[in-house]
């Protein structure tokens, strides 16, 4: 697994963590952060694909 793909998966993982935090803390801003991290991770994985 390339370093860029690993970074992408870590971004998606942190997006999931922010989503869980948004549900637990009932903070709407965390939903936006979660979505942005998932998008960044997806873009990073797509760029790393051969």
Give a quick precis of the structure.
The chain has 50 residues and is mainly α.
Notable features of this structure?
0% strand; 2 helices; 50 residues; mainly alpha
Which range does the strand content fall in?
A: under 5%
- Class based on secondary structure composition and strand pairing: mainly alpha
Mean pLDDT value: 91
Order of helices and strands: HH
Q: How many beta-strand runs?
A: 0
**If you compute it from the alpha carbons, what radius of gyration comes out, rounded to the nearest whole angstrom?**
12 Å
Describe the structure.
By secondary structure, this protein is mainly alpha-helical. The chain has a domain at 1-30. Helix content is 88%, strand content 0%. The longest helix is centred in the N-terminal third of the chain and has 23 residues, at 3-25. The protein is elongated and about 40 Å long.
Blueprint of the fold:
Elements lengths: L2 H23 L2 H21 L2
Helix pairs in contact: 1-2
